[in-house]
């Protein structure tokens, strides 16, 4: 920071031709320092996670050495990851999407309908993804072209879509026992060397999304739009389109998440997805993506999801009754926010 | 009596839970069947199990002066009392479901359809103790909505019965999200099993979670029969779990009846002037020996 | 002069009932520096927003190299070689220098993946070219950490990328000190020397007089004067002309004090 | 707008002394037009409410002519009003507070404890209000002095406080049948000419808050801080203090709301207040207070609360099953947002 | 001249490791116009923020009418009769003119309730006083509906309220046209004529030269020159001095072009 304020710009241009050959160098000469600086937010999240796990482990060392504990988390964690990651894009873009739980429910309902009608689950997945895409497009268009506050408008859409599901199904769930024998199940939801395969897909998704965020035009434009939409518009970026795209991405993520959730226990409930609203939101922010837009971290968000997933498990494993879960949820959220606050500068 | 002898009667029916939870759906179907058979006009009310909301909904129900109201007993005697008094004044017939409200019924009348929560819970505890072959000093886990006194009364009863038999019971408070998506409970249940390695039996609060037992056990690396899983309600998923040997016992509180009977009784009270019904629906236990009887009904969300 | 790069014919623009531009003709030829001056609200910024495709005119024609174009947009404008440094809010301050320079025209390989190394190389080259030689900053530095002058440098680097043919600078020296103003002026001469054209908007008539080959004075949405450098003797001439246009009866205030003292 | 762009400012100052005597006049010469212009947002909300009620009434005219229906809504509506109104201040100030449900629960718990211990309910009310004040101060200080995003930090505090309630009470509720004979009950919770007295208190509160908002220094400063905090700071306003104050105000409102709720139900539940989160939030925005801060409407918020309270009642009374409630919730939120959007300009 | 209104002694201010001010002395007497000039980042805005109590100095003393004060703050500064029109973000644009004028010092009766009618009267008077005579706007008009010049007018009206003794104007004419600049200058003279003092910050040395009685040149956080009007012959003198300070070897760029042509 110190040098930033007294730049070496005293010599006006033209006089500097003698120095033109010089090369850029990273502010830190040591690669490790550079790495830490570039990934402060996600490393901060990792630190929170490690401290939390350390506390739980000290409370009960034996449970935390059992693989089953981890494998059980790895079964449900992927469902959250498929929505947390696109939400990092949405928040980076300066918006928020609270309609993903209903989208999860809607898309997985379509999946359930297709499978129940006797079609191949792969077709069901495709149909679910198409549904998620359309719903994301619908929500995004309403927010972006309608010029509405995404916080409230997506909350409204969540009610509206869930209401539609309820009206049509009148509360009936759908059980899909036939799924267990399908190829889709083996590929997406079985175990491999004792590891739930879901997590491989989720990791692949996180890696893909992290690349999309950091190494793709889409990510670059999402960040710029969230940072300074006026500037982005002047530079020829279709700001509205980019905004709609992040909602579509969330719709797709929610569709995959919903489908994975149904494949875990072969049942679709009309409430499917509802339980994910708060944990997923908390994950994004525990993960170190700030609310003001422009910056964020996909990997941090993923670590945030892991952290949030382990709160409940850890509380129970540490031998506390479930009454402590809410308390710890709140505590971790507050501590993470304080940590990131101290860790992150906001430029204007 | 005509086929639709109750045709001109207006009834408000409290389904209770969230739209679409396993228990509420069957209650709803029972009530709808009654409405179809008897002909009354029925308004269905959902409350997400939020007691404050239930009281307000009851207040509004009393205000529109239907001939009968079938109310959930969850808010408890104190909260229901003034409204029951108002209903009594206005000549509205009352039925209560799921949680008994003895003081209110004593003061202003009304019937009750549902298990006697506490008793049913205790009965389940005793039955589980017997069937699982538990001994004093054994360990069991009981999951339940202990954060809500009246909703958790049943599970508290089970805990009490087991404790009295000398079983060491670990209580896990269920989270509201688990009702919307029981998969969310996979890791905590695994953790609880790992934390209490000697556990012989696990009890679950309602249909949604009990139906998911196979997933929980697989996640924790347990095989069918390793652990005695028991709980409340029936559903297609629970029938499947019986088939697979994952679930050993469920106390069927016959939610269909909890939907059907209050409406029948209200019709009888309004049209025929009969006294209110008092039915304990918590009679039956479903075990691996008799689960097939309920399987077809469960599939149609009737039991 | 050389080839005509762009020409606006009878451009009108209204915001609701307000006429920001009421029929403006303007053209820029290759290699010339056009100075656009005028009062606040005269419509200068609106005019250059139309040139850069950010704002659509209500009516009027746009000709690129003497050919009329339809569907003028920000993207089309940049394709035609027009780059703009806007009056404000030009940069995304939480992003790196690279990301700002390639905003909206990321260097991508197949499928839209960024060519990260190419971008860094190009950014380094551009920054060096405009004399941004500090060793403290790399192309990865966050723009928010830069001083105002350095930020202006990033905006200019962004504009000269891709050998733009016409660079529009909307009041680039507002709130800049003499030292930093000098840098911008030097740069403008560099660009002209390389055969590119410049449209320079400013309030400070002395500054504009020093640098432009041709002057266009806007007044309340109309062109009040177009004059070649040869036709204007001094900056004072221009100032007097503008005062006459704005206040036919003479402008009070600004020079009162000096006169009273003199 | 048209004249705004070409101001009559061509003559520099000092030359205009001849015109100094002229008086200001309101843009519209007719008082009614002026009134409508000044109260666009709340009138818009009122229009939404009237249209909604008209639809319900057409669906079932008889039910809606029964006074009891209204009186039953008027009993609990006050509970919502006591939080909606302070939240209008919070949102105007550019913040949000999601911790009020836990504050409601906490403060009313203190009330229940005091009453159960045999003290006078008035003392209980005082204790509850003190608790609400302290909690509001705690949450506000954390957000303001900790520099945290209020959306997430207050969500965290909501978990944390509710967790505390749960840990200590282990789910046990408290019933307070003795309340019915107390003076406090007669004054705050009985009926008067068939009208629930709560609504008089709530109306008094809304009127007081509307005056505070429009005619008091506090309201003026809240608006300025939400509009342009830098400017407010430069003008000597203690921006942080104003922000903390709005959270304290919400704490007080939540405490009163919680106490009223207990007095209606004669029972305190550990979940008390939880059900109000979404309806109250929706009310604020349905009421026409935008999310970006600086402006808002207390009366609009109150009308929003009335609207939201009647959705469920109306849906059921119109003969639709409860499955339609969520759908209509969503629909009303979206339609109101669209209406306000079209009705309100945002200046920068 | 007259009484000393305020004096700063050896004021230092650092942001982290950056020294924005490195020991500055400055005083303003009653009725004088002090022109504060200096490069970008010289510390001008920091200095006036300290004067107006928005920023606390790292060290140094502040004297009001020759008496040292402790606990200097924005409120204390305004109590001492100092009003500031800040460089930017001065107004709450969604609020009415009245609310902006009385921002932070609302006219209240008992218990903090606003005296609404009194506020409207006063606002009307102030607006008329600065020549804001449009009939389209009332004190209830939203500031966001005003043009830039009109907004500046509101800020100035706010500053002259309560007969402030010292008015600080931080670059009030940046991005203003000649016409509107003239208004501001006329106003500055009005204020001086009424016996009040002004601290005028600007980049345009010609402008500052025209109006100030005394010049203070800041350079990299230090006072490089304090000169009475009588000691400086012309604006060019001042410009040359500043160029020398900034670049002892002579400043390239700004006048190159003109010289090449001449
Ligand atoms: N988005 C807009 N909506 C309405 N009116 C606008 C808009 N943008 C500009 N105007 C109006 O159009 C006219 C021209 O504005 P413009 O910004 O082009 O002037 P300018 O010459 O660039 O002024 P400046 O010297 O202040 O930059 C002004 O009256 C302005 O108020
Ligand atoms: N809040 C801050 N944090 C860190 N550094 C700051 C801050 N404010 C100012 N500075 C630094 O202090 C120095 C003086 O800045 P200041 O704004 O006072 O200059 P100025 O003379 O007003 O410049 P300008 O002509 O651009 O208005 C600059 O180096 C600036 O970067
Ligand atoms: Mg402009
Ligand atoms: Mg400055």
TrEMBL record, chains A, D:
The answer to whether keyword Lipid metabolism applies is: no
Recorded hits in InterPro entries, A to Z, give: ABC_transp_permease (IPR001851)
On whether Cell membrane is a keyword of this UniProt record, the answer is yes
**TM regions (residue ranges):** 41-61, 67-91, 98-119, 192-213, 246-269, 289-311, 323-342
The UniProt entry lists membrane topology as: Multi-pass membrane protein
Q: Which Pfam families match?
A: BPD_transp_2
Can you list the GO cellular component terms from the UniProt entry? plasma membrane
Single GO term (MF): transmembrane transporter activity
Q: Which residues form a coiled coil?
A: none
Keyword terms, alphabetized = Cell membrane, Membrane, Transmembrane, Transmembrane helix
Q: Region entry Disordered: which residue ranges?
A: 1-22
The subcellular localization recorded is: Cell membrane
Please give the name of this protein: ABC transporter permease
Q: Which organism is it from?
A: Mesorhizobium hawassense
From TrEMBL, chains C, E:
- Keywords assigned: ATP-binding, Nucleotide-binding
Q: Which InterPro entries match?
A: AAA+_ATPase, ABC_carbohydrate_import_ATPase, ABC_transporter-like_ATP-bd, P-loop_NTPase
Q: Tell me where in this chain the ABC transporter domain is found.
A: 6-245
Molecular function (GO) terms for this protein are: ATP binding; ATP hydrolysis activity
A Pfam match is ABC_tran
Domain of life of the native organism: Bacteria
- PANTHER family, per the entry: CARBOHYDRATE TRANSPORT ATP-BINDING PROTEIN MG119-RELATED, SUGAR ABC TRANSPORTER ATP-BINDING PROTEIN
Protein name as catalogued: Sugar ABC transporter ATP-binding protein
Q: Which organism is it from?
A: Mesorhizobium hawassense
């Amino acid at each position: 920071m110190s040098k930033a304020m007294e730049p070496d710009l005293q010599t006006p241009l033209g006089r500097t031709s003698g120095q033109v050959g010089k090369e850029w160098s990273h502010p830190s000469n040591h690669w490790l320092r550079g790495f830490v600086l570039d990934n402060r937010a996600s490393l901060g999240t990792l630190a929170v996670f490690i401290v939390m796990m350390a506390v739980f482990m000290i409370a009960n060392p034996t449970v935390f050495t059992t693989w089953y504990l981890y494998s059980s988390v790895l079964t449900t964690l992927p469902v959250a990851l498929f929505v947390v990651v696109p939400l990092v894009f949405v928040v980076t873009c300066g918006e928020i999407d609270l309609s993903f739980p209903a989208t999860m429910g809607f898309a997985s309902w379509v999946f359930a309908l297709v499978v129940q009608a006797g079609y191949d689950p792969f077709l069901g997945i495709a149909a679910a993804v198409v549904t998620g895409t359309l719903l994301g497009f619908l929500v995004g268009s309403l927010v972006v072209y309608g010029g509405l506050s995404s916080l409230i408008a997506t909350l409204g859409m969540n009610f509206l879509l869930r209401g539609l599901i309820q009206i049509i199904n009148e509360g009936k769930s759908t059980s899909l026992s036939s799924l267990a024998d399908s190829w889709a199940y083996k590929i997406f939801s079985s175990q491999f060397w004792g590891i739930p395969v879901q997590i491989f897909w989720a990791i692949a998704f996180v890696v893909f999304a992290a690349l999309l965020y950091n190494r793709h035009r889409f990510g670059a434009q999402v960040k710029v739009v969230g940072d300074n939409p006026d500037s982005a518009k002047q530079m020829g970026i279709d700001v509205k389109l980019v905004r709609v795209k992040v909602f579509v991405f969330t719709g797709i993520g929610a569709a995959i998440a919903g489908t994975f959730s149904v494949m875990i226990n072969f049942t679709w409930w009309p409430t499917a997805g509802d339980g994910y609203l708060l944990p997923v939101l908390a994950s994004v922010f525990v993960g170190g993506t700030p609310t003001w837009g422009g910056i964020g971290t996909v990997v941090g968000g993923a670590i945030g999801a892991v952290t949030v997933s382990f709160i409940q498990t850890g509380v129970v494993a540490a031998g506390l009754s479930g009454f402590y879960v809410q308390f710890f949820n709140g505590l971790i959220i507050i501590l993470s926010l304080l940590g990131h606050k101290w860790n992150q500068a906001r430029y204007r | 009596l005509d086929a639709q002898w109750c045709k001109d009667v207006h009834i408000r029916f409290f389904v209770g839970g969230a739209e679409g939870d396993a228990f509420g759906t069957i209650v709803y179907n029972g009530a709808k069947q009654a409405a179809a058979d008897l002909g009354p006009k029925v308004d269905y009310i959902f409350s997400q199990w939020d007691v404050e909301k239930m009281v307000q909904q009851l207040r509004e129900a009393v205000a529109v002066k239907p001939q009968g109201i079938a109310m959930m007993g969850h808010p408890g005697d104190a909260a229901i009392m003034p409204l029951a008094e108002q209903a009594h004044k206005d000549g509205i017939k009352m039925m209560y479901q799921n949680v008994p409200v003895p003081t209110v019924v004593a003061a202003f009348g009304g019937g009750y359809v549902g298990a006697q929560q506490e008793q049913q819970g205790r009965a389940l505890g005793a039955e589980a103790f017997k069937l699982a072959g538990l001994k004093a000093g054994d360990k069991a886990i009981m999951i339940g909505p202990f954060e809500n006194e009246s909703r958790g009364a049943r599970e508290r009863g089970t805990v009490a019965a087991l404790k009295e038999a000398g079983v060491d019971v670990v209580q896990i408070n269920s989270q509201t999200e688990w009702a919307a998506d029981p998969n969310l409970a996979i890791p905590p249940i695994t953790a609880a099993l790992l934390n209490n390695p000697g556990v012989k039996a696990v009890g679950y609060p309602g249909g949604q979670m009990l139906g998911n037992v196979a997933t929980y056990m697989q996640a924790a690396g347990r095989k069918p029969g390793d652990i005695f899983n028991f709980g409340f309600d029936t559903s297609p998923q629970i029938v499947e779990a019986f088939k697979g040997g994952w679930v050993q016992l469920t106390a069927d509180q016959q939610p269909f009846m909890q939907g059907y009977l209050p409406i029948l009784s209200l019709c009888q009270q309004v049209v025929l002037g009969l006294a209110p019904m008092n039915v304990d629906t918590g009679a039956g236990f479903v075990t691996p020996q008799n689960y097939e009887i309920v399987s077809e009904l469960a599939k149609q969300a009737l039991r | 002069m050389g080839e005509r790069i762009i020409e606006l014919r009878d451009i009108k623009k209204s915001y609701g009932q307000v006429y920001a531009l009421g029929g403006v003709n303007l053209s820029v030829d290759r290699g010339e520096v056009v100075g656009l001056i005028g009062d606040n609200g005269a419509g200068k910024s609106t005019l250059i927003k139309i040139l850069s495709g950010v704002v659509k005119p209500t009516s009027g024609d746009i000709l690129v190299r003497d050919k009329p174009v339809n569907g003028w947009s920000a993207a089309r404008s940049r394709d035609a070689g027009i780059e703009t440094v806007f009056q404000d809010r030009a940069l995304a301050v939480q992003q790196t220098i690279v990301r700002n320079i390639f905003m909206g025209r990321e260097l991508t390989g197949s499928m839209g993946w960024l060519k990260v190394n190419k971008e860094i190389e190009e950014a380094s080259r551009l920054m060096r070219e405009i004399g941004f030689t500090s060793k403290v900053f790399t192309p990865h530095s966050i723009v928010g950490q830069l001083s105002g002058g350095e930020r202006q440098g990033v905006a200019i680097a962004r504009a000269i990328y891709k050998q733009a043919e016409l660079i529009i600078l909307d009041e680039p020296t507002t709130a800049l000190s003499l030292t930093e103003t000098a840098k911008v002026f030097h740069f403008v001469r560099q660009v002209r020397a390389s055969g590119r054209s410049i449209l320079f908007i400013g309030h400070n008539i002395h500054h504009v007089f020093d640098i432009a080959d041709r002057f266009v004075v806007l007044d309340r949405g109309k062109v009040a004067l177009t004059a070649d450098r040869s036709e204007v003797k001094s900056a004072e001439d221009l100032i007097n002309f503008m005062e006459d246009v704005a206040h036919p009866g003479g402008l009070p205030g600004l020079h009162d004090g000096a006169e009273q003292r003199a």
